[in-house]
Amino acid sequence: MIHQGIREWQEEREESLSPHAVRSRLSRGRLKAEEPCPVRTAFQRDRDRIIHCKAFRRLKHKTQVFIAPLGDHYVTRLTHTLEVSQIARTIARALNLNEDLTEAIALGHDLGHTPFGHIGEEVLDELYPQGFRHNEQSLRAVDHLEREGAGLNLTWEVRDGILNHAKTRADIFGEGWGTVGTLEGQVCKIADIVAYVNHDIGDAIRAGLIAEADLPGSTPALLGRSHSERINTMVCDIIDHSWAATGRSQGQEPAIGMSPRVLEATRQLREFLFHRVYNLRSDQEEAAEARRVVRHLYEHFSHREDGLPEEYARQGEEVERRVVDYISGMTDGYAQRRYEEVRVFR
Ligand code: MG
Predict the structure, then answer these.
(1) What is the 196 CA–ligand 1 centroid distance (Å)?
(2) 134 CA distance to ligand 1 centroid (A)?
């Protein structure tokens, strides 16, 4: 059969990648050993498992920043994820890193995001005694929740990239939430920033919160005056600044980053978004309503675990853990509907 041996052929092609790229053949492996696919490399298989999972489909109906906006052109978690994936693949390919690994991490990085964006995350973090972080939940989704609790059994490199993609509020490249172990994971982390800073500007303009002319200081002159110019400037800068990742420049430690000037401009844009968009959004009535919904669902199901769907009623986990798994997996609309159904039980 012709298709037998195609994976090995692809693995051989990976030998021409940068010496700093991860080769699928040398993966640290899966949680449970499995027969390899005859056609796809381990990372291509992981990417496909993520695309076909239920949590990935639900990203379509999860808020990024704007809660349940009426316009069809606002970013959702799904379109954000696809933008991150595309930006990350461009950078990985330019630096001769493993594009398949990069794509798998990018597509999986936000699977654990709650409904209502970071507001949902904050509320669950307050309520659940062990704390809640979307990146840890993304890993939980792929390890424990998908496939009726069997998990997707992904490779170590994809799981590491998913767990350690998150930034801190204080620092755009902050590693307070973990250090990623591969250059491909670093590419996804930076691509996440490039994607959200730019699409959040676009959405804020769309919502009439800001105008293009409000962008701070020297950022338009340095980064460009349109969405595509800004992304292009950042991506090209990352490629130039991270060139040691290709293994073609001697003596430099390979790492993914931005030049100081572009990094500073990106930081300014992010701060501007916090002041003019993110903080404002979280003061509004729709944010208060989102907090109410998540809080009520948490209290309700913590006391009535018989109301949990069967796939969250599994033995062996404490009830709060299962309630957090259930709520964090909800889309915005589903959370609203469940809230309407259960609030009569107060
Ligand atoms: Mg993201």
Answers:
(1) 7
(2) 10
Q: Is residue 307 part of a domain?
A: no
**Residue 105 CA to its chain's centroid (Å):** 8
Q: What DSSP string runs through 147-191?
A: TTTT----BHHHHHHHHT-PPPSS-TT--TT---SSHHHHHHHHH
Cα 183 to averaged position of ligand 1 atoms, centre (Å)? 17
Q: Examine residue 41 and state whether it is found in any structural domain, yes or no.
A: no
| CATH number of the structural domain spanning residue 229 | 1.10.3210.10
Rounded distance from Cα 122 to ligand 1 centre (Å): 16
User: What's the 7 CA to ligand 1 centre distance in angstroms?
Assistant: 30
Q: Name, in order, each residue with C-beta under 8 angstroms of 150's C-beta and a sequence gap of 6 or more.
A: none
pLDDT, tens only, 134-188:
999 999 999 999 998 899 999 999 999 999 988 766 666 665 567 899 999 999 9
Task: Please indicate, yes or no, if residue 243 is contained in any of the structural domains.
Answer: yes
* Structural domain span for residue 197: 54-278
pLDDT in tens, 284-312: 888 899 999 999 999 999 999 899 998 88
Confirm whether 12 is domain-assigned. Answer: no
CA neighbor of 158 nearest in space, from 110, 89, 93, 108 = 108
Burial class (CB in 10 A: 0-12, 13-18, 19+), 59: buried
Alpha-carbon gap, residue 346 to 303, rounded angstroms: 11
Distances, alpha carbon 135 to alpha carbons 67, 141, 161, 295, 333, in Å: 20, 10, 10, 21, 22
Distance, CA 78 to ligand 1 centroid (Å)? 10
On the question of pLDDT at 317 being above 90, the answer is no
- The tally of domains found in the chain comes to 1
Q: How far does the centroid of ligand 1 lie from the alpha carbon of residue 101, in Å?
A: 16
